Amino acid sequence: MILVLAGGVGAAKFLEGLVQVVPPDQIVAVVNTGDDFVLHGLMITPDLDIVTCTLADLIDREQGWGLAGDTTACLEWLGKLGGPTWFTLGDRDLALHIRRSALLREGWTLSQVADSFRQALGVAVRIVPMSDDPAPTHIVTDAGEIHFEHYFVQRRAQDRVHGVRLHAAGPAQPAPGLLDLIAQAERILIAPSNPVVSIGPILALPGVEAALHASAAPIVAVSPIVGGAAIKGPAAPLMRAMGYEVSALGIATIYAELADTLVIDQQDHDLAAPIRALGLQVVVTDTIMRGPVEKARLAACTLKDTGNRN
Amino acid sequence: MILVLAGGVGAAKFLEGLVQVVPPDQIVAVVNTGDDFVLHGLMITPDLDIVTCTLADLIDREQGWGLAGDTTACLEWLGKLGGPTWFTLGDRDLALHIRRSALLREGWTLSQVADSFRQALGVAVRIVPMSDDPAPTHIVTDAGEIHFEHYFVQRRAQDRVHGVRLHAAGPAQPAPGLLDLIAQAERILIAPSNPVVSIGPILALPGVEAALHASAAPIVAVSPIVGGAAIKGPAAPLMRAMGYEVSALGIATIYAELADTLVIDQQDHDLAAPIRALGLQVVVTDTIMRGPVEKARLAACTLKDTGNRN
């Protein structure tokens, strides 16, 4: 079984490659829930939905989020009735949030909801939220401490960032079985996701880092930073605020103690030596996931035997 | 000020007539909430929505409920995710339910939500839910005691009815100010709505019947039964189950102690004498509300001075 620590769009694309080279039912995606938030009284789980709907081939591929061909009749009317409209919610998309919220109120756990949804949508990859507890990621900005989605979507990542507060609602436990999954995994992959607000919240769960250190499986991370910039999303300002260089070397610094291997883009080949100096194996390849071929090739790179420090 | 006790479709059409002959801001509609129920974790208030959206000229006129031109993308996806689909919810329609549920969870009362919605949709008639408390109407059937919407919509009114339980969630109070509104009204109209499950729940609220009896205003009811059948909805089986004849005379029996005048259809002119014998004034007219002209004429009939027993 291959375990993938996953955020949103980058992880979803990476997983689309992985299912081409590994039987999907042998893959478990552990998905960040730090972006989850309540809007219109509905529990919205952006990364879980992006991963699930991308693997179900339902995603709007231009945006990377939302459902292909979705309409926004409901959102327009929510606006007419005085509701917030800064977070785009399609009509089909809303069904996920309505149904999820209803099931959670009925006593289902988020893990159960996520599993039910991926099965309903025909996804063979097992999808596990990192935690069944609320674990919101807050961004400390000049405008105050605000939820990640307020920072990123509502305020368009324009506030100066001073820091990040993970699990801002209080202690969160790993989802049931997550530590066992880490222990059982034959290979652990860290998707090309934001290390601060996508992978960071997973690693911050009690027992997760220890379980990763204890695992004998190779741990291979893919750098989400190419040529000194993030492919998508606010990794740059957030890495900078946390004191990391915005580069594949910065990513290496973050994962040096945890991973065995870092996959970096060919544009960053000159960083291979300094990254190796941090004790990581390095694979240099094309990491830009333009289409199915590139996705599969990148996934295959993360499966190569590059040695394991343990 | 004219107060109208209102159910759903019949009341909404009647109010469309009334606003043609009375300034809308001098009309208060007190709307049944016995049909309200929770589905998909959302609070759905059928009669409030029918009245509000009809007066806003947004209603689907063929159905009498739902919004004109609405789509059902969300509902189809709720079905894909295992949610119930027996109650049709359009995408725009859902915005009302989502926003209402969110505001109620934020601590708004149903009265506040109803007032906010009618203002947002440009309705000048004041719309007051009968109660801010849950007051579900249950139907006692061969299949057990079920909520009215389960009986009427999900099971298509096919179960044998043994009785009706109003306010089945426990004691409900009249909405704030409702008793004062009754005391202040210059005329009180009972819309052509189901007497058992639309008007009945309003009358059953503590203090409402007493306030109506104490009022010096003429009380004029319009029979929803024409030629021994309901224009729409399950009035017939419900009246029968409650021991009433399904006729304008049956309606007269129900309202005899409460109303001064009953407006009946010309088809039922032979019932005028027995209705008068019950102590009610009778107005015989065309009560079928085919279009704006008929609606206005019916409304005008309810404003004629036919005397007041008080």
TrEMBL record, chains A, B:
Keywords: Magnesium, Transferase. Transmembrane segments: none annotated. It comes from the Bacteria. GO terms for molecular function: LPPG:FO 2-phospho-L-lactate transferase activity; magnesium ion binding. This is 2-phospho-L-lactate transferase. It comes from Candidatus Viridilinea mediisalina.
